[in-house]
């Protein structure tokens, strides 16, 4: 057999193993509120350009200031931890890829960190 072909056959599965080792599993929830995932509970897989993401959604009230509404958990490409302001809304994003399910809902900690 051609030496090059043989080498290709031997090395073929290697990149696959590498990709699998890199895969990171994250929590998905379309609407998380009061300690429960109300809608769209699932898992997603992040790769070298994506991360696990937690987003807290707030809205502004003249009387009470920023009020927490709900949280969304997913995987995102080129994720950056940040606060995004849009009219009367604020979206606080937290990104991580240090371990599987690292974006799992963090409870009140997440909310306290905002102020
Ligand atoms: C998500 O992954 C966890 C741990 O691997 C598993 O127990 C759970 O069934 C998965 N959930 C879904 C919706 O795939």
TrEMBL record:
Entries under Pfam families matching the protein: UPAR_LY6
InterPro entries, alphabetized: LY6_UPA_recep-like (IPR016054), PATE2-like_ECD_3FTx (IPR059168)
Keywords: Signal
Keyword Oxidoreductase recorded: no
Signal peptide: 1-23
Keyword Chaperone on entry: no
Domain UPAR/Ly6: residue ranges: 22-104
Protein name: UPAR/Ly6 domain-containing protein
